[in-house]
Amino acid sequence: MPRVSPQATDALADDLDEIVAATGDVWAELRGARLFITGGTGFFGTWLLESFAWANRRLGLNASATVLTRNPHAFLEIAPHFADDEAIEFHQGDVREFEFPSGRFSHVIHAATESSATLNNENPLLMLDTIVQGTRRCLEFALACGARKFLLTSSGAVYGKQPPDVTHVSEDFRGGPDPLNPASAYAEGKRAAELECMLMNRGRELEVKIARGFAFVGPHMKLDVHFAIGNFIRDQLKGGPIVVSGTGTPFRSYLYTSDLMVWLWTILCKGVPGRAYNVGSEEAVTIADLAHRVANALEPLVNVEVRGTPVAGAPAEHYVPSTERARTELGLRQMVPLDEAIRRTHVWFRQRMNSR
Asked: Check: CATH 2.60.120.10 for 6-220+253-282+315-336?
């Protein structure tokens, strides 16, 4: 796998400075903290490590982070700069059965189990087991190590299919995925993980918070999986055309990763215990319009091909959150506009390609 060049890493400096500037009071709480992070080598986790390491150095926090991963050597091949950070150590193990590292930890972030469509389709039982058993193991560890706060990164998938008349789904929505559909393994796993958090938290001092993530864009994301915006940026980098394989009518929204980090760190430290917060953008855009936004935001301009034909009269699908709770309770908001998020992501990947 290609190594991330120093130049590609430096391209994150402005983003990381923005994160630290927007979360000053959060880092004050984490001064001298000892964190345990699962999923630290995935998309969310890599950004958690980038932002933690940056704030730790910039602010002199004297904090440390232990990262659970199945294969630390493979991750350090991709991100070798973490090997030189004495504040970060890697703990090898499977999230479902890892041995507890010794000592006390103050904060636990359970960010394992990304939304892999391939795993969900090919081995849904493994997907379900990884989420449910992994969350139980992490909660047991949090209680054993004396952690004060626990953050679960859940998903907007817990709401199931958004009704056509609901343009922005709130945390109070009581829908859910179809439990008789094997494709619901990821969503049902996240629902069970949230319930585990509430059950394990009863009568204990551990403060559990839940972040329900929607769709995101930014450096370190995968461009060759089922995320439309990543596919479109990949197509542009290859010289086009940008291909929309479906009808392009579903609505989605995308939050940039620097904003994502501001939200996650804030929810961990300042969120109300036992509460779930939607994490995402409220700016709804159809997939077809998104393809054109990517094309128009980047140079050189490439063509867009929408290959599917919309069904007349069919309601458009939505996967867009209401973030009123995060705004009113925690003061969180989207700071990076979508077009700027696309440009920043494109720059990072283009620099990475040129460094190979």
From this structure: no
